[in-house]
């Protein structure tokens, strides 16, 4: 049964009972009893009538009772139904808006510093844990070089056309020589100029195959080792996580599961999946509990929105993790506004 169908099949009284249970839960985190609802309903009804309605909502899977005699709580399905069909989204509070805008500052910080500030501010404002996915650098490559640091260590230096430089220490193939490193660098520079790193990766396998005769075995391994490093590390956008203590301090947090979530994030095991969440479309997306593998163990919710560059291409995302009883009506517009602001600022930069 679709969510819209479920909503349409609820009569006005059932919808009001359901809405008030969810809103009370999001505010207090506590089960809601029938006697409490009798004081808030728009029509005068008995506690027995409300109990019957709540039983029907429980049968539909929208509410649950933690104890036989306790009130009701919304289920994950109930929260999803409320968020998609009944939630009223607030405007961004002027104070929150000002705090977000202040993170930009007047000192024109580099992109990394700027997004770190944004992540810290977002965590502070929402009292949750913030995630910011930094954009990868996609300027055309000007030059690539390999530098020997020792028998088992080498440095890859990548110079972009806009002057940006990346370098990383890696373990080269056994038996590499200065001549094989020069040969590998010459090979890469011959095909890299004018291409972004993403475009270069798309060409490198075919070029290695087509020109295998021009490289000895060690040089080919060195090429593959150097590019594999960027493919799995620095070429992936960087994930900034701030405010994990806010989630650990949540009253309903399962501490061990939340720590496992953040350990996974900090090890970047699921960074590709987080990027996929952001790239599935414009606008804010909400993932509640087990709806997403990344947060299923912690029982947390994620509110995430992508941001775009000047070409309207999604290049990163900002998000907030919190308990399932997040104040979605407040958090959603904050995340949305932050993503739009980041996109405008980054689109105004040349590099």
Helix and strand arrangement:
Blueprint: H1 3-9, H2 12-28, H3 34-38, H4 47-59, E1 63-64, E2 73-74, H5 76-85, H6 94-102, H7 111-126, E3 129-133, E4 141-150, E5 153-160, E6 165-170, H8 178-192, H9 197-210, H10 217-232, E7 239-242, H11 244-248, H12 255-266, H13 271-279, E8 285-288, H14 293-296, E9 300-308, E10 314-323, H15 328-347
InterPro entries: GAF-like_dom_sf, HrcA, HrcA_C, WH-like_DNA-bd_sf, WH_DNA-bd_sf, WHTH_transcript_rep_HrcA_IDD
Protein name: Heat-inducible transcription repressor HrcA
Organism: Paracoccus zhejiangensis
Task: Provide a concise account of the structure shown.
Negative regulator of class I heat shock genes (grpE-dnaK-dnaJ and groELS operons). Prevents heat-shock induction of these operons. GO terms for molecular function: DNA binding. The chain has 351 residues and is of the alpha+beta class.
């Amino acid at each position: 049964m679709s969510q819209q169908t479920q909503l349409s099949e609820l009569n006005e009284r059932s919808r009001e009972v359901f809405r008030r249970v969810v809103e009370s839960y999001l505010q207090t985190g506590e089960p809601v009893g029938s006697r409490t609802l009798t004081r808030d309903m728009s029509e005068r009804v008995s506690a027995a009538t409300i109990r019957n309605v709540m039983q029907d909502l429980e049968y539909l899977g929208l509410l649950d009772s933690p104890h036989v005699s306790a009130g009701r709580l919304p289920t994950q399905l109930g929260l999803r139904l409320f968020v998609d069909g009944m939630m009223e989204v607030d405007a961004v509070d002027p104070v929150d808006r000002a705090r977000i805008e202040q993170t930009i500052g007047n000192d024109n910080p580099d992109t990394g510093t700027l997004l770190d500030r944004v992540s810290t501010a977002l965590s502070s404002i929402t009292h949750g844990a913030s995630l910011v996915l930094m954009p990868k650098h996609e300027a055309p490559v000007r030059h690539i070089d390999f530098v020997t640091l020792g028998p088992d260590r080498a440095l890859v230096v990548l110079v972009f056309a806009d002057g940006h430089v990346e370098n990383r220490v890696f373990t080269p193939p056994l038996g590499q020589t200065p001549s094989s490193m020069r040969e590998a660098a010459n090979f890469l520079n011959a095909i890299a100029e004018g291409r972004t790193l993403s475009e270069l990766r798309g060409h490198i396998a075919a070029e290695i195959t087509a020109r295998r005769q021009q490289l000895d075995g060690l040089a080919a391994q060195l090429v593959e080792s150097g590019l594999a490093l960027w493919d799995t590390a620095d070429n992936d956008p960087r994930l900034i996580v701030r405010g994990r203590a806010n989630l650990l301090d949540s009253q309903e947090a399962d501490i061990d599961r939340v720590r496992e979530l953040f350990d996974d994030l900090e090890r970047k095991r699921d960074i590709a999946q987080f990027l996929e969440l952001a790239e599935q479309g414009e606008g804010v997306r909400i993932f509640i509990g087990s709806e997403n593998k990344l947060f299923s163990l912690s029982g947390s919710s994620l509110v995430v929105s992508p941001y775009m560059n000047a070409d309207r291409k999604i290049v990163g995302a900002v998000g907030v993790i919190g308990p399932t009883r997040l104040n979605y009506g407040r958090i959603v517009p904050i995340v949305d506004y932050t993503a739009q602001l980041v996109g405008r600022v980054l689109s105004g930069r040349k590099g």
